[in-house]
Structure prediction request, 272 residues.
Amino acid sequence: MAGPGHRAKRSLSQNFLVDPNLQRKIVKSLKPLATDRVIEIGPGTGALTRHLVDRVAELQMIELDDRLAAQLGEEFRDRDDVVVLHADALEIAIDELTDGEPYKVIGNLPYGITTPIIFHILDQRPRPQVMVLTVQKEVAERLAARPGTKDFGALTVGVQAVARLELLFTISRQAFRPRPEVDSAVVRIEPISPPPLSLPQEESFRRLTRAAFSRRRKQLQRVLRQAPEYALSAEEAAGLLRSLDIDPATRPDALPVSDYIRLAAALEGRVT
Prediction:
């Protein structure tokens, strides 16, 4: 529950999960072990924290709110296995918090910066073993989308290319205080190990997805012709796509993630 007298800050997209059964269900989804190192992003008032502290070897929390960070620091000041970091998660090299050791991530992400945080975590080396995140339901549906659906986009492709994604369950807006205007969902993101793409390949992959989904209504052949980073002729674009058994008339939101990976590899080194 919210701490005494604490008012949620709209500027930080604060909505506190007050249903203890759902709190326990989220923590259980992480499958915490006594040997685990866990990083919690946005612990807020400690709703998930208190279900974790005695179940894992080490818990580090990243909290941006001044008052909440101070309250958590005071509550756990006598615990050597609990660390409260008053910081912005987007400005922390999360992988460095565990000295290269395996770790897991859990958190109720602020709606306004959900996508940047997810990609920031996936940019870490090593990546976490698993992430269990509470996000806006709409974002969860985009993360779990399949080709050819309206929710399939750059976020979908960017995450599914490097991780296994599972939408676990939804949470009604009634379970939060203050009540948000939308429902939420809990997703489990398990990065693939070893990583399927090298760092240069990931850059090529992201370049392709940016070009494709900024032109999602166009056919792939035209995407490759119009994107200034490629500037292929119609014949070059069609020939490349056909060599990969991809129909040049396919639109970006209909191309499977595996084909994006193959196409990005074929385009690597062709950037102008």
